[in-house]
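Tutorial handout. Part one gives the primary structure; part two gives the three-dimensional structure as tokens.
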Amino acid sequence: MNVRLRQSVVLARMLLVFFRRRVLRAGVLRSAPVRVTAVSAAVLLLGVMCTSAFLFLKPLADGEEVWRLLFDTSTVSLVLWVQIAFLLVKVLFINAEGMLQLSYQLPVTNRERQTAFLMYEATMTGVVAGVGLISLAVSALLLLGVDAVPYITASVVMPVALTYLALSVLYQLLTRLWGLVRLTRVSNILSVLALFALLAVYSVQMQAIFTGISQAYLDKRTHYSWVTSVSWAWHRFGALPTLAAAVLLVMALMALALVLAPNRHVPQSRYLNVATGRRLNRVLGPYDYCLLRSSQTVAGAVMAVAVFVYLLLDGGISPMWSFTLLCLGGLYQFTATQPLRMLPGAAEPAWRTYGRLVKAQVVLLAVFVVPALGIAAIANPGFVVESGPALLSCLGGVVLTTCISIVFPAEKDNPFSVFLGLSVVGVMLALTGIGLGMLSIPPWAIMASFATAAALFVWYAVQGIETSESRRRNEEGAVGREVRRRSRAAHAGDRGGLLAVPDVLDGR
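Part two.
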């Protein structure tokens, strides 16, 4: 293996410049007041979380065993969040072909490119996984001082690094496996689905792990669990030997992930040949096929069906909540359909474009929800009665993801815009939920507030479409005048992604 880390760092810096210039200055983030508001909201949410955790944990400041219990149970949850974040990042990166093209002309190997993207994926995964534990870590530092560092290192930092790298190695092994059976073009989708199955298995075991740790605390004995291996070894063998062994394991897993990375880049299928039938061909349009045949949609649909089956067998909550995962396909819907709007004579009002985007997602929901309701009614009629909030949440997810795809456009299919959009909207919704909870307003007022918010999302999305299309027409006009002034043809290699249009124009 020959990986020049300097080349990977240079590429990572170039992607950082791209992120700063074309993601932090795209869509709604072009406005400086909006950026300041988003950052202020994130800081406010972080302050609320840390203050609440500090006040809750302050009476426990003198109990060493209690702190170990808190961090061990947090590690169990943290491993789950790392898996969720890893899958989320991989789903967002499935069709990041446009952003990868930025590095094709650079003198870097595919492994060096993989190393650069590993840095970004690890950062994004760490951000998602660390959101839930940052309040505990900050509170521990404030209450325990430097004594909290061993807890954070053994129960937060090392488990996150080891879990992420182990998943990366497993992901590369699965990619090699799909290559052996000639499924390379859809290897990313299959690997994501396999890791989702692993996530489901772990989530089932979590309750037993929590019970074992809690019972050991009550019995005042040491309990070993593979999830908390670092923390257990830290207290059993000491800090330095455990830290050295963990660092060596991290380095070994990182080297293995890079060795297993393919020598050359293999493009992934953006659209899959999903059969829809002759009857649906009569009512479905290009916008519908663009969503239904998207690789992200297929991955989300398989995960939604798996969660539906699990919730149906579990019998705890309505299995219809699983179909909120179908909304993930809408995060790229606006940019994916841009080639359709660039066709001659395809100009139409913004509200009609928005209607086409929403209609495609509603059709996708109907394809899965209608038969699922019948299955749920047969298994347990109570599920149908309880499905109202879940179905409303699915429709709310359609409005939300459509707005994110418009307001935070994923230029060149880069996943950073979508990740940033999800983060900003998540912060806003969290602050709204905390505010409504503190006001203790009645349920009807809460429903009215969310209905108003949905209407504002729709209005803002329509305005975003008008702004985006107006800006695109102005840019095309400026390019056209420049080309005519030079009296030579435009470069044929940049066609705005029109090569993908035949995949979604019809159902054949």
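Part three, for discussion. The first helix runs from residue 5 to 23. The chain has 20 helices and no strands.
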